[in-house]
Amino acid sequence: MSFKTHFLFLLLLLILCLTSTRANYNSYPLFRCQLKNNNFTADSPIYRSNIETALSSVSSSVTTHYGFNTTTVGVSPNTVTAIALCRGDISSETCNHCINNSIVLLKQVCSNKIQALVWTSNCMLSYSNRTHNDTTFYNRPYGKIVSYVNASNIDVFNAALRDLFGNLRTKASSGNLLRKFAIGDIVYGQDLLKVYGLMQCAPDLSSFDCNSCLSVVFREAQGCCNGDVDVAVYFPACFLRYSNVSFYNDPPKISLPAFPPSSTQSTVILGGKHKSSKIIYVVVPVVCVSVGLLLSIGLCFLVNKTKRVKNATKNAISTLLMSEQSYKLAQIGSVEMDIGSIGSLQFDLDTIEEATKNFCIENKIGEGGFGPVYKGVLASGMEIAVKRLSKSSGQGSHEFVNEVILMAKLQHRNLVRLIGFCCEDDEKLLIYDYISNKSLDYFLFDPNRNGHLDWSKRYKIIEGTTRGMLYLHQDSCLRIIHRDLKVSNILLDMEMNAKISDFGLARIFGMDQTQANTKRIVGTYGYMSPEYAVHGHFSEKSDVFAFGVVVLEIITGKKSSSFFDQDDRDDLPHFAWKKWTEGTTTELVDPTMVETCPKDEVMRCINIGLLCVQEDVNARPSMASVLNMLNNYSITIVPSPKRPPHYLFRRPDSYFSAGNFVPGSKDESLITEIHPR
Fold this sequence. Notes:
Layout: H1 3-18, H2 23-26, E1 30-32, H3 45-60, E2 68-73, E3 80-86, H4 92-109, E4 116-119, E5 123-128, E6 143-146, H5 154-173, E7 180-188, E8 193-201, H6 207-224, E9 231-234, E10 238-243, E11 265-268, H7 277-321, H8 324-331, H9 339-343, H10 349-355, E12 364-368, E13 371-377, E14 383-388, H11 397-409, E15 418-424, E16 427-433, H12 440-444, H13 455-475, E17 479-481, E18 490-492, E19 498-500, E20 507-509, E21 516-517, E22 523-524, H14 530-535, E23 537-538, H15 540-556, H16 572-582, H17 599-612, H18 623-631, H19 653-657, E24 661-663, E25 669-671
Parallel strand pairs: 2-11
Antiparallel strand pairs: 1-4, 2-3, 3-5, 4-5, 6-9, 7-8, 8-10, 9-10, 12-13, 13-14, 14-16, 15-16, 17-20, 18-19, 21-23, 22-25, 24-25
């Protein structure tokens, strides 16, 4: 070996020795030297020679192809495909230097491997015995770089990342055959901090595959490195990086021509015979005509099937998301949801049917007003909950799109996380993280299970629900009015953390908007505020009213509707207020915990619940005030509540038979259409 080669090799060994056991993931370069558990041996000189030729060829022309090149050398079983991809903002000289150095490192660290890959900060180089692009995203091994320095406000930081990379993903995936690359930054938080981002795909990926690849990479980044301010995640076919300091060249140092060539892939076949150009001139037209005739005949027989597949895979999103209603909804409050970022969450129906065993009854875990919910397991082993909208449900295309748009933009530890959706063959499916402990009403209203909810757990659920609602109203990038908060829409994870779910009826508010009106009253009996049920006026305080009912139900362990009496039209809020004024509030507390709960804390929560259900909208506290009253015990005097409204509806059978209600969760009713008086 030359002195330079020895020096590079020793330097690499020194880096590997000085770093921790996580060095291969937390510092450059990153290697994948054994994608399959096999080596080529000394009796494979052809394969070894083809590796040398492929790496040399891909290196020699990577800069003339503007930072990306693929080369295939040899014939099966000794075919070798090499791929080189440079970062889209670096110069040709830097790119060439990076690829050449990577070849040296790859030969030394990954010697005698049939497949090998190396990532550095400026480029990626790989070779394998597979035909180029024969597996999704080049078979998807990945590496990551993490700084382990967290942002001061992780929720705000993550919201900024989602906005930034939603835009970058769209820009990168819409690139041409020379480059699919995007850079940008975004300012976030009260301190006007900035985060810088970069996304890139190999330019031979289609726009759809690039969008999908970048979507998966971003999920890996969020999953592995939540809140970290400097992260890079690499797949062989795409990658991203973001940092709190600028790290890229803006503008990029390589200028692209106005009209890119049709292909950047070269092929070298060793041992083949040279053919006369005259023969080629004869054979090629004949082959083209023959293929054209065969395709025309086949097309006549397969046109119906092709249309069906095309509609299922490409038109499902545009049919819904580009409707006038959903497009307007997506832009309220100066927040745009690009079609590409939503489309990247789409699952195909076959995948969901396989995960749920074709929606078998054994996998059914719940039933809501909009349809059944099934547990499923993806091929990766990930557990999911699939909300299957029934055709007879009140939720149509508008509500379906609404929930997709909202949940794609929102992320908080007290909200259920949307994994994706499916809209195919008349099916509308929403795919969420599987929450193992079901919903709050599963425990709260079952006498055999409510004993599991001691006061500490109930208080934790109240506080978690408060934080989730505060995020919706104030702390997220959008202002969201949920409009259907209830105990059956609060799910519980293994640690009994509250997760607010079901955003089909939610509405986005503009940042300066305080109230909206509607002629279509939607919500659940017992949780709706009087101004909403009577006049169609809804606001953050409408959610506060529903939250107050939830708090009182958590404390009593009883449904609001169970207090209803036909003679005096009583309900839980009014019943609780009477006990409050009579000084017999302890009679409200669930008997399973009345002897063990801290009385002062319970009384404070009852007080807060009654403040939330006051008839006067302005007298109800905000969710920020609620959280302050829950956590700040220096507030010794909490305002006294005023009388809540008598509930607005008697529920004669004729009202149900008129079709104004459809079944919701057990013993609940979802109002789908009431014309305000």
